[in-house]
Each structure stands twice: as C-alpha cells, then as structure tokens.
Automatic annotation (TrEMBL):
PANTHER family: EXO-ALPHA-SIALIDASE, XYLOGLUCANASE (EUROFUNG)
Species annotation: Wenjunlia tyrosinilytica
MF terms (GO), sorted A to Z: hydrolase activity
Stored InterPro entries: WD40/YVTN_repeat-like_dom_sf, Xyloglucanase_GH74
Alphabetically ordered keywords of this record: Hydrolase
Coiled-coil residue windows: none
GO BP field: xyloglucan metabolic process
Tree of life domain: Bacteria
Record protein name field: Glycosyl hydrolase
C-alpha cells in the first residue's frame, strides 16, 4: 500500500503523519503555538516541497518551506508574502498556498487576508502581489466573512497557465483567462441570500471551490447556503444540492483521478453550525452532483459536534485515493478506500484548520 504524507494544520501548530490505511505515525507540533491556516504540498519536483502559512501572535504571519518532509524548515530573512508599501496594507494571514499545474511548473499562488492574490515564480521562495486583482474596481466593495475578508481558494487549469480562478470571502468567484492580467466576476447562478439582490454580479460568500479530475472546466462550489457545479469554468453555476441533508458547509474536494466524483461535509445553517442532523457524515457524488450518498462506516454514530472547516477536507493522489478530514473537535479521520470506510488517525488535537495529503512514491 502506498505511503502517504498527511499534513494537519491546527490552531496551535502543524502535525505531520506518515502512513497508510489505518496505521499512522505523527510528528509535531511543528511551529508550536502558531495557527496553521494553509498548507501546500508541491509534488511537481523530485522531492515534495511543503509550504506552510503559520501565524504567530508575537511574530505575525509567515510562510515556511521544507524540502525534507518536515525534518527542517526554511523561513526567508524577508517575509515571503508582503504587501507593497504603496498599498498601505499589511498581511494578516495566508489562507491558501497553491502550487499551480504542470503548465506553470515553478508557480505557487498565495491567497491572503486582506483579500489579495500573490504569485511566486520560484517555487514559493518569494511572492509578488497580483496587482490586477488588488486594483479590481469591485474590491473595495468586498465584505468580510465570519472568518475575515480573504482570498481563500485558488484553482489553476492544468492545461494552461493562463486560466486562474479564485474565491473571495465575501466577494465571490473571480476568473482570469490571461494569466492574471485581468479578472472577471464569475458568479452567475450563485445565490447570496443575505443581500437585497440575491443574485448579484459579485459579493457572494463562497466557501470553497474544487476542480474535476477529468474536465478542468467542471468546478464544484460550496457556498454559504448552496452547493453548485459549473461546466464552463465558472461562467455559469447550477445547484446540485438536492439529496443533501443541508446545503450549507465549508469544504468541498474532488477526486484526483475519477471525473464526476466530489465530497462535501454538510452543516446546519442555523446559529448552531453543527454537522447536519448532528451526524458525522461525508457525502460523495459519483455523477457530478446528480445524486449523493452518505459515507459513515467507521465514523461516530451518535450525536457529533465536530465541524469541518473549508480546507480541512482533502484527498491524496494515490490509487485508490485516500480521503481525509479534520474537525474542530481535534479529530482526524482517514479513508483508504475513497470514503467507503473510515479510521480515526488522530484525536485530542487543537482545532483542525486545514488538511493536505500526498502519496510518497519510492
């Protein structure tokens, strides 16, 4: 069975697991007492590079890299992600670290709070502000979601370096087809029930976007109320929430090899913000959202209160693919059979903020 690296970002540090199936060994916490909101695993190089966005209450936010699977870490002398003085803005948090696809082998994107996009052309060593998005005429009207105003999702097209899609809380989806030179809102069909106009051009509270494995133009979106699919790269969205116990949630993740397969963790949308029905269940579609099935074998069967956040649901790139999620109870669950059954692999952690996994070949 393929060995997998499992990276778990928590409110008080990073845990790194190595294992397969139900057998795991963890090290950490790395960056103790720092909140780890973003993790990237760059598998485009001979040895995977780990990128971690960590927040220190004393030193502030920073981006760390490791080329030896976490045995050692590098932090640049100057901050890797830093707003130019001309913006009059300072970095609060790095919400996303996304290695781009094979069409852009050295490019890594960082999504930040305040809502901005940064680009690295050297594998994440240094980043520069994507000024075209920062200067977009709608940006000053973006609001802050409950977690803050942030670019929290970056999706890149594996076929070309020109197409980049980002999600902003609370600004909606924006898409570039010219490598980031210009951006257009891409929210047609996505509802913003909290606004006077429920279908505005922008201003939706998008929680997460995932890209289909077989068709890069097919995207899945978990909204603040609503689960959607786009078949044209975000140009238009249609609801695929029917069959789910709730259409609210934070995370959505797509299978790395099988088209039409995606996963969500439904949450009640009322003030309780608890798992739907107070049940710990992941839902899977294998037909691009036409139908959904609950996955709960091996998960707690009684009342459960562990909420899964936007970046805490992920898959590895093995075959069969492993599925992982962490929750605010400090539990991490893993499935080695694409969600059919689950094992508890870590517990009693601080709040789990993000999860990433990748197979380790050789």
């Amino acid at each position: 069975m393929t060995e997998v690296l499992l990276a778990v970002g928590t409110q008080k540090g990073l845990m790194l697991g190595r294992g397969s199936g139900g057998a795991w060994e963890f090290t950490g916490p790395h960056f103790p007492m720092q909140a780890v909101y973003s993790i990237g695993i760059d598998t485009r190089r001979s040895s995977p590079r780990l990128l971690v966005g960590a927040d220190s209450s004393h030193w502030g936010p920073s981006v760390f890299t490791s080329d030896d699977l976490g045995a050692s870490w590098h932090e640049p002398a100057e901050p890797a992600v830093k707003f130019p003085k001309s913006t009059g803005t300072s970095l609060e948090r790095v919400w996303q670290l996304h290695p781009a696809g094979p069409a852009a082998p050295d490019v890594v994107y960082a999504g930040t709070q305040p809502g901005a996009l940064f680009r690295s052309d050297d594998g994440g060593e240094t980043f520069s502000l994507v000024e075209s998005l920062w200067e977009h005429p709608t940006r000053e009207q973006w609001e802050a979601g409950f977690g803050g105003q942030a670019v929290h999702t970056v999706v890149t097209d594996p076929r070309t370096a020109d197409v980049v899609t980002v999600a902003v809380s609370t600004g909606g989806v924006f898409r570039s087809v010219d490598g980031g030179a210009s951006w257009q809102p891409s929210n047609s069909g996505v509802k913003a029930s909290f606004l006077p106009d429920p279908f505005p051009e922008f201003g939706q509270c998008v929680h997460k976007i995932a890209q289909d494995a077989e068709d890069p133009d097919r995207l899945y979106l978990q909204n603040h109320g609503g689960v959607y699919r786009s078949d044209d790269g975000g140009g238009h969205w249609q609801s695929i929430a029917e069959g789910l116990p709730a259409d609210f949630g934070f995370g959505v993740a797509a299978h790395p090899h099988r088209g039409g397969t995606a996963y969500v963790f439904p949450i009640e949308a009322d003030v309780m913000r608890l798992p739907a029905g107070r049940r710990c269940r992941v839902y899977r579609t294998q037909d691009a959202g036409e139908t959904w099935e609950p996955l709960s074998e091996g998960l707690p069967q009684g009342d459960h209160y562990g909420v899964v956040l936007r970046d805490a649901l992920a898959l590895d790139d093995a075959d069969p693919a492993g599925v992982y999620f962490g929750n605010r109870n400090g539990e991490v669950y893993a499935s080695a059979d694409e969600g059919d059954s689950w094992h508890l692999v870590a517990e009693h952690l601080p709040d789990v903020l993000c999860v990433r996994a990748a197979s380790l070949e050789g």
